[in-house]
């Protein structure tokens, strides 16, 4: 029985390994002197000759695990065993990191995680590497939960069984996966897949296993599950169950938050940080609404990105000149003219002038001298022309709370976007516009772009309910305290009359 959690279409099959895959074993060990030799002995004789390296990582054990490993290395010659004693305990995750780096450096094709306490059957090694050898998976997990009742028959305590079921269901619901078990320590990975994910930034603790699943899922790798026997003997568990449950729950919630743009993005590393919301209440949507019904305008779109907004404006009948420092794919089809330039150095002369409207949407916070750009943009306007700009509101409750709690840090996007070099409140931006001799013609407070809730959402129905609730709460907040609940400010500015 095989369960496949496919993160990309089945037809995208990787090229199978060579006729003989180079297989490595990473054995994590802590105080395992009484079991490490018997665990190695249980590796099937027919499979031993296929193993090109075994990494025994003694995690600063307090017993003779390291000496037992050295003795086995000398006495048993049919396993290419490397015994490493870490001078300090690297943690369960840290020990795995060291082993995977070892496998990557040696150019192995497959690496299997094996526990030195013998809880996961070495006899199953041929089966767990088979999907990887066939090119049908990027990771293979041994699951104790796929066959009903087998985990309890194998001695899994009831509280662990129930906890495993509840946590796995919660993790699947948040992430959108369909794994029967998130907590098995019996795993085999394609070394090529490990190279593509940033596992080195993961925790050194026991929830390392959860974080690497999230990274594999984020990278679109295929995970195959196989049923394995459960065996609980006299081994000592060093896992604090409540702390473990808290940590992995926070991991999956952090993953969803990073998909929405919050946090550094270590887990959601493959999600673009430039995926701007395009809903009717987003900044782009409101700009299009403001310009609806106006006669044909000649528009300069500064920081046009991929040209999504420009395309919508052209569809409404306007002429658009786009400027950005990088020409993204397809931009030429979305603007009438594109000029590649770094706006930090000013607006290039190639754009010309005589514009009805200049756009600086989601741009000014990325510039060290936004005042200079506003002054230059003003000189490019026709008489009666205007400038439309958006700025994120640093007075919003979210950054206020982060600062008040002493937890200020940058996010992948949003108000605390890691690319922002300037922060604005309503008052500070209006002072900046005043100094640039611009007056406010129109201002609007924009709420939280609720469509970001869909990023990484496993299903549409709960997301729609969440969006409705958030929209209602946000709308009330914008009415009662706009400077506290405005996610962005949208301005239309015009040259101030000279005295």
Describe this structure in words.
By secondary structure, the protein is an alpha/beta fold. The chain has two domains: 3-259, Alpha-Beta Complex (Spore Coat Polysaccharide Biosynthesis Protein SpsA, Chain A); 283-495, Vaccinia Virus protein VP39 (Rossmann fold). It is 35% helix and 19% strand. The chain is built from 17 helices and 15 strands. It has helices at residues 36-41, 45-48, 65-75, 91-105, 125-133, 150-153, 158-175, 191-196, 208-218, 241-259, 283-291, 308-315, 370-379, 397-404, 426-435, 460-480, 482-485, and strands at 3-5, 23-29, 51-58, 81-85, 110-115, 139-143, 187-190, 223-227, 298-302, 319-324, 337-340, 355-360, 381-392, 438-446, 488-495. It has an eight-stranded mixed β-sheet, sandwiched between helices. Strands 11-10-9-12-13-15-14 form a seven-stranded mixed β-sheet, sandwiched between helices. The chain is elongated.
Q: What is the averaged pLDDT score?
A: 87
CATH superfamily of the largest domain: Spore Coat Polysaccharide Biosynthesis Protein SpsA, Chain A
- Report the CATH C-level class of the largest domain: Alpha Beta
Helix content: 25-40%
Low-pLDDT residue intervals, each spanning 5 or more residues: 1-15
- Helix tally equals 17
In the CATH hierarchy, what is the architecture of the largest domain at level 2? Alpha-Beta Complex
Distance between the termini: 82 Å
Strand line-up in the sheet with most strands: 1-8-6-7-5-2-3-4
**Class per helix and strand makeup:** alpha/beta
β-strand percent reads 15-25%
What is the 3D shape? elongated
Q: Quickly count the domains.
A: 2
Biggest sheet, open or closed, and with what strands and sense?
8 strands, mixed
Rg on CA atoms, Å: 28 Å
CATH fold category name of the largest domain? Spore Coat Polysaccharide Biosynthesis Protein SpsA, Chain A
């Amino acid at each position: 029985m095989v369960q496949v959690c496919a993160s990309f279409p089945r037809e995208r099959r990787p090229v199978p390994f060579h006729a003989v895959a180079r297989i490595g074993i990473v054995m994590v060990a802590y105080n395992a002197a009484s079991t490490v030799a018997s665990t190695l002995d249980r590796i099937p004789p027919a499979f031993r000759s296929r193993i090109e390296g075994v990494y025994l990582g003694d995690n600063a054990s307090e017993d003779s695990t390291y000496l037992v490993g050295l003795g086995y290395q000398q006495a048993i010659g049919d396993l290419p065993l490397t015994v490493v004693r870490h001078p300090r305990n690297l943690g369960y995750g840290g020990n795995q990191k060291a082993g995977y780096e070892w496998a990557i450096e040696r150019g192995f094709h497959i690496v299997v995680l094996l526990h030195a306490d013998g809880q996961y059957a070495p006899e199953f090694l041929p089966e767990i590497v088979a999907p990887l050898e066939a090119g049908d998976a990027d990771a293979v997990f041994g699951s104790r939960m796929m066959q009903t009742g087998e985990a309890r028959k194998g001695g899994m305590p009831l509280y662990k069984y129930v906890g495993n079921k509840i946590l796995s269901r919660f993790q699947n619901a948040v992430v959108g996966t369909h794994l029967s078990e998130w907590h098995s320590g019996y795993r085999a990975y394609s070394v090529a897949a490990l190279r593509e994910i940033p596992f080195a930034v993961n925790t050194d603790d026991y929830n390392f296993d959860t974080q690497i699943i999230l990274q594999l899922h984020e990278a679109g790798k295929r995970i195959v599950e196989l049923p394995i026997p459960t065996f609980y003997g006299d081994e000592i568990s060093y896992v604090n169950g409540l702390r473990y449950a808290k940590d992995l729950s926070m991991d999956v919630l952090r993953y969803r938050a990073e998909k929405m743009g919050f946090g550094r993005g270590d887990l959601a590393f493959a999600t673009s940080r430039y995926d701007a919301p395009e809903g009717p209440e987003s900044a782009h949507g409101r700009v299009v609404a403001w310009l609806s019904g106006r006669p044909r305008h000649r528009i300069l779109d500064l920081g046009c990105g991929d040209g999504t907004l420009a395309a919508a404006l052209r569809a409404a009948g306007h002429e658009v000149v786009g400027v950005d420092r990088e020409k993204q794919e397809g931009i030429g089809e979305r603007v009438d003219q594109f000029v590649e330039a770094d706006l930090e150095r000013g607006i290039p002369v190639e754009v010309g002038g005589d514009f009805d409207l200049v756009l600086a949407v989601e741009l000014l916070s990325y510039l060290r001298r936004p005042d200079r750009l506003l002054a230059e943009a003003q000189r490019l306007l026709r008489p009666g022309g205007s400038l439309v700009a958006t700025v994120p509101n640093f007075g919003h409750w979210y950054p206020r709370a982060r600062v008040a709690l002493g937890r200020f840090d940058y996010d992948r996007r949003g108000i605390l976007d890691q690319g922002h070099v300037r922060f604005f409140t309503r008052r500070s931006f209006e002072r900046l516009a005043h100094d640039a001799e611009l007056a406010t013609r129109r201002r609007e407070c924009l709420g939280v772009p609720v469509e970001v809730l869909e990023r990484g959402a496993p299903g549409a129905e709960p997301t729609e309910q969440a969006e409705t609730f958030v929209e209602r709460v946000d709308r009330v907040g914008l009415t009662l305290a706009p400077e506290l609940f405005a996610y962005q400010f949208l301005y239309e500015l015009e040259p101030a009359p000279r005295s």
